[in-house]
Specification:
Largest sheet: 4 strands, mixed
Helix content: 40-55%
Low-confidence stretches: 5-13, 52-58, 64-125
Distance between the termini: 60 Å
């Protein structure tokens, strides 16, 4: 074991800086890649961005070609008709327009007309947090300065869903530790003020109180309001267990009335604070566009996601003129810039090759959806493109493809398999899709148990154990049969 670890360590230490950089770039997502490139651009004056990098410059990254030609040819053999290819290849926005309403909007990458183009996203208004929203309401109330401070103190202890998890005695002790003498009665009054703010239900100590606050804020003549109040304050556990017969007895109502009560409760928000900003938003930029052309599903690089880099000609000329006077430092930076340009080019070449290999093997998914997904492992793609499995793992993590069915991470298309009675194999993704279809089509009054779903799949030739059905169901956040039962 120790010898094996030492061998791996020695192999790592013998990696050239260029190879280490290549491996690192493969691990980065497109967003992270552009952040990393900004650092390189700031540190190396011989490297620059250029959306219109000349293909005559051997040190520049050409724009991506249409279809698979880019993957088929080595970087140094890339065609020179860059401008023509740019017109032929659809942009990300054009691809989205062609795919229709199914595709969720996404960012446009880091495309620039020039280095001085303004980034208007920096002027986007930040989404207010729940605390900001409540503090603004406090400032508009007619409370005394002291009462406002206590209300702000309470707001500061709400969690992201809008709940006050600490009891008032703990809050009083916390206030005392901060050199503020606050009485329990003052905290109770402040909490009551907070509970009358928007969003309704904020400041509750538990889910029952949260739902009660929302119901009490409704007009008194709201149908089923009083019965719903009785349900959420006294029988919420019975509703959670879906014991509808017991609920009818406890509330003295019939089936139709219980449906109305339950429908009213389902309109309430158990997490009133979640509608507000919770931090930074992560954007997904697809690296590859997949579409059907000429009867074949093909992948093409998303040109909006590809950075365009080249050697800064002015600094290169200075280096050439100063070679006799010793330009070792600039010479090293020139070599580093060339390495980076080559490695970025290789990164996108590899992503495209791997994506096309995945698309070729999962074409039935693009035609028919998840139920047609076939089993696929990293080794199969590694053998197809002539790379190591670890490289395929890096390439398929945090890299995305835009398809007519949506945006998917490349590793989504890999999964284990289950044998069928005919000697074939069915992917776990397809089985999950079948389970989802069965649940969607079930009789709400007699939902399918995990055992029954297992039997139905067996009738279709797919042998899946009950516990495996339960595991897949839970992974899809589908409740068990007893909690799916309707009235």
């Amino acid at each position: 074991m120790k010898h094996s670890l030492q061998l791996k360590l020695s192999q790592h230490l013998t990696l050239t800086p260029q190879l280490q950089q290549s491996i690192r770039l493969l691990q980065l997502s497109t967003v992270e890649l552009n952040q990393e490139l900004e650092r390189y651009l700031a540190e190396n004056p011989l490297l620059e961005r250029s959306d219109l990098a000349s293909t005559d410059d051997p040190n520049s990254i050409p724009p991506p070609p249409n279809g698979m030609d880019h993957a088929a040819a080595p970087a140094e053999e890339a065609p020179t008709a860059a401008d023509d290819r740019r017109e032929e290849q659809p942009s990300l926005a054009e691809e989205q327009a062609g795919f229709g309403d199914e595709v969720a909007p996404t960012g446009s990458g880091n495309r620039r007309d020039d280095d001085e183009r303004d980034d208007f996203t920096q002027f986007a208004a930040a989404e207010p947090s729940l605390q900001d929203h409540l503090l603004q309401q406090v400032s508009l109330t007619g409370l005394t300065p002291r009462d406002k401070l206590i209300a702000e103190f309470v707001i500061g202890h709400l969690d992201e869903d809008g709940y006050l998890k600490q009891d008032l005695e703990e809050l009083r002790e916390s206030a005392a530790n901060s050199a503020s003498d606050v009485e329990i009665e003052e905290l109770q009054i402040a909490l009551r003020h907070v509970q009358h703010m928007e969003p309704t239900g904020v400041g509750a100590r538990d889910i029952a109180e949260c739902l009660e606050l929302q119901l009490r804020a409704m007009p008194a003549d709201t149908p089923h309001r009083e019965a719903a109040l009785a349900l959420v304050t006294r029988h919420l556990d019975v509703l959670a267990a879906r014991d509808f017969n017991k609920l009818k007895r406890l509330l003295a109502v019939d089936d139709e009335e219980l449906r109305g009560i339950r429908a009213l409760v389902l309109t309430l928000d158990p997490k009133p604070g979640r509608a507000f900003g919770q931090g930074d938003v992560r954007y997904v930029v697809p690296d590859v566009l997949v579409r059907k052309a000429g009867g074949r599903w093909t992948a093409a690089l998303n040109r909006d996601a590809m950075p365009r880099l080249r050697i800064n000609k002015m600094y290169a000329d200075i280096l050439q003129a100063s070679r006799e006077n010793g330009g070792k430092h600039l010479s090293g930076q020139l070599q580093e810039a060339r390495w980076l340009i080559k490695n970025v080019q290789q990164r996108f070449d590899t992503i495209l090759r791997v994506t096309q290999a995945i698309v070729d093997r999962q074409k039935n998914f693009f035609e028919h959806g998840e139920v047609a997904m076939r089993p696929l492992v990293l080794r199969e793609i590694a053998e197809a493109v002539g790379l190591h499995e670890s490289t395929i793992s890096r390439v398929t993590t945090q890299k995305y493809m835009l398809t007519p069915r949506g945006i998917f991470e490349l590793k989504y298309f890999f999964g284990s398999h289950v044998s069928t009675d005919t000697g074939g194999a069915c992917s776990a993704t397809a089985i999950r899709a079948l389970i989802k279809q069965l649940v969607a089509a079930e009789d709400g009054k007699k939902p399918l148990s995990d055992h029954r779903i297992s039997d139905i799949l067996a009738q279709q030739g797919i042998q899946v154990a009950r516990r495996t059905v339960a595991k897949y169901r839970e992974a899809m956040h589908i409740q068990p049969a007893n909690l799916r039962k309707s009235i």
